[in-house]
User: What shape does this take?
Amino acid sequence: LLGLDEASLSEAILTKRLIVNGKTIKKPQNKALAIDKRDSLAMMTYSNLFVWLVRNVNETLQNESASGAAPASDTNNGFIGVLDIYGFETFEVNGFEQLLINYCNEKLQRHFNRHLFEVEQELYANEGVDWS
Assistant: This one.
C-alpha cells in the first residue's frame, strides 16, 4: 500500500545501525524501541494521509466554488469547520493529532453529559418529579 519493500521496512524497524570507525554495524533493536519505530511510522502515515485528504477536499471545494457548481460563501471559498464543545477552533495548521484530541474530548463530554443526565433523571423519578 505504501510502496515500501517489506524486508527493508522490517529491517529498519527491527535493527539499528551503528557506524564505528567508518564501519557499519547492524544490531538487533530492543523491543521497546522497535515498538516506538512502528508506532512512529503509523503516526506519520496517518498524519500524512490526513494532510492529503484535507488538501484534496479544499481543492475540490475551491474548484466547485470557482465553477459555480456548488453554493459558496460571500468570498467564494468553501470551508469545513469543526464545532466542538468550546466552539469553532481556528488554527493556521490543524493536524490529525488535533482532530484526535478534539474527538476524544467530544466523546468524554458526551459520556459525562449522558451520565449526569441519567443521574438527574433517576433523582427526579425517585422524588416523583415529572421531568418529561
